[in-house]
Structure to design on (162 residues):
């Protein structure tokens, strides 16, 4: 099935962290596709939080989603993410599973589609670059339509940089 993964970094060399994460994800699916990188203002973060660099990956996955989630969390920790932290605390790397085909999952460890992706331009803008016509359960329209709606709301800045 096609899955979406959000990548973000706001500590250290953000571009290098995203590049390492892309390499790691290509180890799971050599055909993984990646959006451009975007510079984004922090959303719902403590005051003084540095800006993020974000992008989105789309790839194939045939295993259990809980296994992929566990691997992603282990990789984040290997890159310096703290296991005990405040909500939305700065981090060298953040990986979020955004969707998995047309699956709706609500469990203690996994909630898909990601419950806030339709509210976040830093997710929808890069995702629209990869698959503007994709329909994801829970979105009000296509990925491209949702991104356009968010751009029109004039929320936190999200600009393509690479």
């Amino acid at each position: 099935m096609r899955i979406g993964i959000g990548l973000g970094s706001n500590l250290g060399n953000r571009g290098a962290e995203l590049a390492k994460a892309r390499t790691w994800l290509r180890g799971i699916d050599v055909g993984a596709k990646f959006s451009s990188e975007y510079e984004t203002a922090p959303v719902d973060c403590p005051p003084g939080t540095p800006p993020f660099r974000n992008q989105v990956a789309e790839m194939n996955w045939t295993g259990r989603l809980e296994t992929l989630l566990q691997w992603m969390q282990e990789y984040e920790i290997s890159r310096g993410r703290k296991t005990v932290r405040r909500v939305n605390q700065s981090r060298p790397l953040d990986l979020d599973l955004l969707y998995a085909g047309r699956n709706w999952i609500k469990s203690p460890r996994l909630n898909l589609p990601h419950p806030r992706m339709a509210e976040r331009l830093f997710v929808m803008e890069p995702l629209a670059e990869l698959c503007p016509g994709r329909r994801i359960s829970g979105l009000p329209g296509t990925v491209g339509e949702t991104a356009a709606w968010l751009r029109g709301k004039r929320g936190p800045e999200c600009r393509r940089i690479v």
Notes: Residues 14-28 form the longest helix (15 residues). The domain at 2-116+156-160 is CATH 3.30.70.560 (Alpha-Beta Plaits).
